[in-house]
Amino acid sequence: MSRILIVEDEQHLADGLCFNLEAEGHQPVVARDGELALRMVLTEQHKFDVIVLDVMLPGKDGFAVASELRHAGQYVPILMLTARGRAEDVLRGFESGADDYLPKPFELTILIARLNGLLRRRRWNEEPLPAEATAPPPDRFAFAGRTLDFAAMEIHAGGKSYQLTLMECELLRYLVKKAGQPVSRRAILEDVWGLAEGTDTRAIDNFIVRLRRYIEERPAAPKFLQTVRGVGYRFVPEP
């Protein structure tokens, strides 16, 4: 049974989600505002397997809640509910640390499928390797003394480990897959985030800045995550 925190101020929607999630075998808990959600997770230290977080909340909005959770080192998966699927809301959600998004109004079956996907990823990350497994898991990429662990969503560099959000992990995986090739911001929007061309691309730049802090010795003069002027970015594992 998975514990799911629903942060939603519309009672009819919260009640409906609770009813259907219970029918699916989950244990839902409701917080009517962002402050209560933060108190439950950070102060009272309730354990949840995933959070369904509405953007439009009284007091602190969903973006602020997600950001505070991530800054506090809480990496529980977050499914963010956005108004009308506006691209700016989606990008702000990813920047705040959301792992997935769903525009309102939504189909219940789609929401449950998204939640199950996040729960599967969480279980995979928490399952220990068999005792006889000595080779590194296949979902890793090593370069220049750094290791990208896509399964655990971590970067190991300079003797430190950095936890990634799902969106940071997927962006980095995409760049690694295209290693040596210039990748346009448009391609990232469409292939990684599923957003239409014409969306503001500044969020991509902010993601790159964060990733550079993890893997570059001098983030202001990057060697691995290079800017391709007028195009986008290029990952170079061996500069």
Protein described:
The radius of gyration is 19 Å and the shape is globular. The strands form three sheets. The protein has a five-stranded parallel β-sheet with strand order 2-1-3-4-5, with helices on both faces. A four-stranded antiparallel β-sheet has the order 6-7-8-9, with no helix packed on it. The N and C termini lie far apart (47 Å). The protein has 239 residues and is an alpha/beta fold. The longest helix is centred in the middle third of the chain and has 19 residues, at 108-126. A hairpin with a 4-residue loop joins strand 7 and strand 8 (154-157). The protein has two domains: 3-126, Response regulator (Rossmann fold); 140-235, Arc Repressor Mutant, subunit A (Orthogonal Bundle), CATH 1.10.10. Helix 3 runs parallel beside helix 4. Helix content is 40%, strand content 22%. Residues 127-137 have low confidence and may be disordered.
Task: Describe this protein with a few key phrases.
239 residues; alpha/beta; Rossmann fold; Arc Repressor Mutant, subunit A; 2 domains; four-stranded antiparallel sheet; 8 helices; 12 strands; globular
Short characterization:
It contains eight helices and twelve strands. The chain has 239 residues and is α/β, with parallel strands linked by helices.
